[in-house]
Amino acid sequence: MLDYYKILGIPQGADYTVVKSAYKKLALKYHPDKNPGNKAAEEFFKVINEAHQLLSKPEQKAQYDLLLQYYYQQYSTSHKPAPKEFRKNNRPKTERSIYDRYGKQSWRNIPNYKTAPSYRVDRNYFKIQFITLTAVAIVSIFIIGISKYNQYTKEVEAAELKAKNDKILASAISLYDDGQYREALTTVEKLIHQNPIEPQFYREKEKMVASLTNLTTQLYRKADYNTAIKNLEVLREYQSPMRLTTWKMIADCNLHLKQFKRAIHALEYILIRDKNNIELIIEIGDIYYNNLKNNDKALEYYTEAKFLFKQFQSAAYGEAFELIMPAEKTPEIYYNLFIKRAEANKSLGDYEEAVTDYNWAIFLRPGKNQSYFYRGNCYKKQGNTRKACKDWARASELGNKEAHAFRNKFCI
C-alpha cells in the first residue's frame, strides 16, 4: 500500500494546507514540461497528483488514514522478530540422512487407508462454492463501482475547473483587448498561482507581455511618451526578466516628460548591468548638471567616466598612452566629457581641476578654439593673466571672436 504522506514528504495526518504546499513544490519539480523525456519523473508526477487528489478531499482522506493505520498495524504484528530462544533452539542442523529430517517411524503405526476419512463432493460442497463465488463477485462489483464513481467524480470536477478557468482566461483576454493591460495580466497571474502546472496560462502571459512590448515600442517611436510610460510601468511589473531596452525606454520617456529622477533611476539600473558603459555614465551626469542643477552629483559621474576613459586607453596603449594614442581618432564623446567635467569644476570653484580637464580637451582636439578660450578664463580667475592672454590669443587665431575681445580688454 502506497504511503502518500511519505511520497509528499509530510507527516501522517497533515492538514490540507501542508498537503497543498508539498504538492505544489513537487509538481513544479517533476512536471513533464520541465523534465522532457524523463519517464521516471513523469510516473512520479502521476503518483504525487494522485496523492494530492486523495488527500485534498476530507472524506477520502479520513478513509485513507484508517486504512493506512490498519496496514501499519498488520505490518508490525506480522513482521515481529522471533524470540531469542526460538532462534537459538531452531537453528538448522546438518542432515546426514532422511531420518534427520522426518524422524524414524515404525511401520506398525502407519494408518490403514481403508479406514481414513474420504472427501465427499455433494450438494453442500456446491452450496459452499456458490456462496463463496457470489460473495467474491459482489465484493468485486462493489469495488469496481466505487472506483468508477470516483473516476467519474474526478472527471466532472476537472471539467468544471477547466470550464471555470477558461471563462476567467477569456475575461482576461477581453480586458487586454480593451486596453486594461494591468488588470488582464493580474488575472492571468492569479490563474498561474492557482494552477502552477498548467502551461496554457504561462503561454498566455508571455503572449500578452510580448504584444504589449511591441505596442509600447511603436508608441515610443511615435513620441507618444505619456501613453508609452503607462504601458512601460505595467511591463516593469510583469516582464521577467526586465529587458535593458525596456529600462532605456522608461528612462527616455521620463526624460521627455521631465521626470528626471525617475529617468536617472532607470539609467542607474541599466548601469548596474553594464558598468563599463561610459556613454551611459555621461548621460546620467548630464541630467544632474543640466536638468537637476546638482553639480556635485554630476561631477561624480563625470569623474567616473574620466577614470574609465584612462582605463580603456591604458588597456589599449599602455600606461604612457598619451604619447602613443592617436588623439585625433578618439571618439568625440571623450572630448565632450572633459569639457563638461571642466564646466562642473568651474561651477564649484575648482579652477585648477578645470584647467586639467581643458588640457585633456585640447590634447584630444587641438584645433577647437573654445577649449583655449575657457582655459584662459580659468587662468584669469586664478590670477595668471599671462597664461590667460596666451590662451585667448590662440583661441582668437582659431576664430573665437569673444576671445579676441577679452585679449583686447585684458592683455593689450
Mind explaining what this structure looks like?
This protein has 412 residues and is mainly alpha-helical. Helix content is 75%, strand content 0%. The chain has 20 helices and no strands. The chain has helices at residues 4-8, 16-30, 39-55, 58-78, 84-89, 98-102, 123-177, 181-194, 199-221, 225-238, 244-256, 260-273, 278-291, 295-317, 321-324, 332-347, 351-364, 369-382, 385-397, 401-410. The longest helix is centred in the middle third of the chain and has 55 residues, at 123-177.
How would you describe this structure in keywords?
412 residues; 75% helix; mainly alpha
Indicate the radius of gyration in whole angstroms.
44 Å
Contiguous helical run count: 20
Give the uncertain stretches in residue-range form.
Answer: none
Give the total of beta strands: 0
Classify the secondary structure makeup into a structural class: mainly alpha
* SSE arrangement, N to C: HHHHHHHHHHHHHHHHHHHH
Mean pLDDT: 87
Helix-strand blueprint:
Layout: H1 4-8, H2 16-30, H3 39-55, H4 58-78, H5 84-89, H6 98-102, H7 123-177, H8 181-194, H9 199-221, H10 225-238, H11 244-256, H12 260-273, H13 278-291, H14 295-317, H15 321-324, H16 332-347, H17 351-364, H18 369-382, H19 385-397, H20 401-410
Helix pairs in contact: 2-3, 7-8, 8-9, 9-10, 10-11, 11-12, 12-13, 13-14, 13-16, 14-16, 16-17, 17-18, 18-19, 19-20
